[in-house]
Design brief:
single chain, mainly alpha, 64% helix, elongated
Length: 132
């Protein structure tokens, strides 16, 4: 029986290390509490504050990006329901916040429902240990 061969280790390039360092600097831990707080603001009975709509849309889009990345890392796309929710999330993420206040509220609520459904599905699939 021959000894297994091991590939020689090659030092990473400066570009690889720079990209890795940039990714680490940009990384923030998943904050399920913040996600749920944003969902509550948008999905409560009242209307989200007009002055906060742009910031809320940005945070909800950020939550969608984070959840999509979590889904991809956990290969959740193999699940038909998760796959549907991921397509929906990507489509909503690409849409701009409408200028009309009534339409903007509707768009925020669509974003929030998409975040909520994806959060619940990823939790059910075991992709998230705990989010609240």
């Amino acid at each position: 029986m021959s000894a297994p061969t091991v590939a020689r280790w090659a030092a990473p390039t400066a570009e690889t290390l720079t990209a890795l360092l940039d990714a680490v600097r940009e990384w923030t831990p998943f904050d399920g509490g913040q996600v749920l707080d944003d969902l509550a603001v948008v999905l409560d009975d009242g209307q989200p504050p007009r002055d906060d709509m742009g910031a809320l849309a940005g945070r909800l889009r950020g939550h969608l990006v984070r959840l999509v990345r979590i889904a991809e890392a956990n290969e959740a796309e193999d699940d038909p329901e998760a796959c549907r929710l991921l397509r929906q999330a990507r489509a909503l993420h690409a849409e701009a916040l409408p200028g009309d206040e009534r339409r903007a509220v509707g768009h925020l609520r669509q974003l929030a429902w998409s975040v909520n459904e994806l959060l619940e599905r990823l939790g059910a699939l075991g992709c998230l240990r705990r989010y609240a």
